[in-house]
Amino acid sequence: MRQDRRGRRRDNYRESDDEFQEQVLQLNRVMRVRKGGRRIRYNALSVVGNRNGTVGVGFGKANEPPEAIRKSMQDARKNMFQVPLVNGTIPHGITGKASSAQVVLKPASKGTGVVAGSSPRLILELAGVQDILSKCLGSRNKINRAAATIDGLKRLRNAVQVGRLRGKPAREVLGLGDTSA
Predict the structure, then answer these.
(1) 3: burial class by Cβ within 10 Å (0-12, 13-18, 19+)?
(2) Rounded CA gap, 109 and 96, in Å?
(3) What string of DSSP letters covers 68-131?
(4) pLDDT digit string (tens) for 14-57?
(5) Which DSSP helix (H) or strand (E) runs through 14?
(6) DSSP notation for 140-153
(7) CB 52 within 8 A of CB 80
(8) C-beta atoms surrounding 75 within 10 Å
(9) From CA 48, how far away is CA 105, in angstroms rounded?
(10) pTM recorded for the entire structure
């Protein structure tokens, strides 16, 4: 847990009982006009991760904000997946797409940090990525940007997975193996 000079928590991450951290990415108030007046509902977009390669994003809707947040956290825990990491960054560049949103993710050298917009930054930090470059294209919608980031992260493959697909050892995929034989 990070603290400022006065000893207060500096980030808005909620510590839960287990190893995962929870964060609300967006809370929307939605109004529907009906015969009797306006009906107000809320929807929430949340991210859950352990900062060690596991992350999930969830969406929840309810009549009250706390219930919408609880539902989105529950959905995020249900949709968790592993992100392949190599020395604190991703193994290769990739473009995630969702609706009209595109998020370009590129590996970065050590010490670069997370260079990303608000939605991708939160997801990448909770996934445990320490060094990455990203650019959001297309949609300005946080929900679509989050979905595009998740799409890109889910399609990442490490050398072992690529080697298994090609029927070759990981060393040969990386160009380290003896290819003279």
Answers:
(1) exposed
(2) 21
(3) HHHHHHHHHHHT-EE---BTTB-SS-EEEEETTEEEEEEE--TT--EE--HHHHHHHHHHT--S
(4) 655 578 999 999 999 999 999 989 999 999 999 999 999 999 99
(5) strand 14-15
(6) --HHHHHHHHHHHH
(7) no
(8) 18
(9) 20
(10) 0.84
